[in-house]
Amino acid sequence: MENTKDLTEHSSRSERKRRDSFGMFDGYDSCSEDTSSSSSSEESEEEVAPLPSNLPIIKNNGQVYTYPDGKSGMATCEMCGMVGVRDAFYSKTKRFCSVSCSRSYSSNSKKASILARLQVTGKPPTKKAKVLQKQPLVAKLAAYAQYQATLQNQAKTKSVAVSVEGFSWGNYISSNSFIAAPVTCFKHAPMGTCWGDISENVRVEVPNTDCSLPTKVFWIAGIVKLAGYNALLRYEGFENDSGLDFWCNICGSDIHPVGWCAASGKPLVPPRTIQHKYTNWKAFLVKRLTGAKTLPPDFSQKVSESMQYPFKPCMRVEVVDKRHLCRTRVAVVESVIGGRLRLVYEESEDRTDDFWCHMHSPLIHHIGWSRSIGHRFKRSDITKKQDGHFDTPPHLFAKVLADGFLMIGIDGSEAADGSDWFCYHATSPSIFPVGFCEINMIELTPPRGYTKLPFKWFDYLRETGSIAAPVKLFNKDVPNHGFRVGMKLEAVDLMEPRLICVATVTRIIHRLLRIHFDGWEEEYDQWVDCESPDLYPVGWCQLTGYQLQPPASQSSRESQSGSSKQKKKAKSQQYKGHKKMTTLQLKEELIDGEDYNFLQGASDQESNGSANFYIKQEP
Questions:
Q1: Given this model, what pLDDT does residue 563 score?
Q2: pLDDT value for 397
Q3: What secondary structure letter does DSSP report for 75?
Q4: For the chain, which terminus, N or C, has the lower number of CB atoms within 10 Å?
Q5: Which residues cross the membrane (predicted)?
Q6: Per residue in 314-340, pLDDT tens?
Q7: From the CB of residue 6, how many other CB atoms can be counted at a distance below 10 Å?
Q8: Which H or E element spans position 439?
Q9: What is the rounded CA–CA span in Å between residue 598 and residue 58?
């Protein structure tokens, strides 16, 4: 496969080469294998105590270290900083791991301990470490201990912060046997177009958390289940034992393809729980990994590149006026999170009058777009650009369509000044022909004040003297989007666009998805286009640092005040209905076009959702 690395090639190599290729820190062998030192040609001045025969060992450049067994104490080489069992160290004082380190230290070439470097940077030790300080050993050990304690405290703090949230996608999916929409369903999301065939059984190298060594070590794990960006992993060697399975974001910085440890000089150490399960871990890995798949070697680079966004703070754009949908206003990009933009209207003095949307949203345009198509535009009272603000380059937006834009209003709820009309393009997938809802059994909201129920299109058109827009004028393209009923995802609440919530696909009608917010009543469901930039894979918020809203609990729903509900319903009406579809009427064509023959007064329908307010064609 193009995006996976086939490990079969290792099977044709010699046994020795295959062993070295899995990043075993120059070998993870049993004590029956050769463990003699080869890093120095000098003979030992003192015999090294024999190692316990029941412990697997790690060899690096001939220097031997083992796991702590509860009896043997740990020691740190004052020269190179390596950590190992005290009894395996050189000399009576156990200050050095080898003769070479002892003589180098005594020759005054590198008198400062590598622990000083650990204290400052926290990076793994190297033999070329610079002399940073000339502290006594006791002071350095104290500093290192303090540094490790700080790291542990930070880890505990982070753990507490996560538990306070009370929601974990992994636990939520595992405990309920949910499935999540695959990343490939979201072309606008990071890795959406280059996810490849990452699937179950793909192997990766991850930090080994079941280990008592003071340094960070890794081990190989396989993907048991995928849920968006999140993967349930199981360490190699646990077979059918799920006791230490764990969830992580596959795009995280600690997830690497097999072979990364070997290339980076990182140790591969089996989990403590199973360290005595096999006598030859190298042979085990060779057998398990031959023919297996792993991440592409440039996976982390692709993740990084896919999370680079062209929009920057202080860029000026034209965006829909959230209070008067019929016009646009100038806004300034305040922040960019995962491609989502917080836009502050230019005239907002306290910078609280904002609007959230994705950079691919059809609601934003380059400066000058409204004038170019004849769209209504609210002129700013600010006559001069503020310092540091600059117009967003037009090439960052989708192709500007020169014609075919329509102003459409909701029947029965028209404002006297036309402020509730909205601009769509004729190719928008969010407007539908008369009869669409009836055919697909979608509830249609009749015009406000219309009392002849149940609503019938034929009667309504005859009574109002309207004509139906021909079906041939509508966008009938239905992509192979990959969504299925019951899939979990993260979705924007269009009534509060700054919120992204845990959600479920409950219905699919062609390219329309009905999105239900977990824990909330169905009245808050919304219809969304399958290519909406307001839908994201599970784990997107964690990956980008955006705040995810967990499923609403019964208590939180009941505590919502009546006024708050009324406010939500009012806002829902502003966004043209949430769960239902509404009857619409074409008000005017902004620019005539030969290919688009909508007539003023023709009625159509629209769905609610992320693509409701299409002003231009989706990219």
A1: 43
A2: 58
A3: E
A4: N
A5: none
A6: 999 999 998 888 899 999 999 999 999
A7: 11
A8: helix 436-439
A9: 75
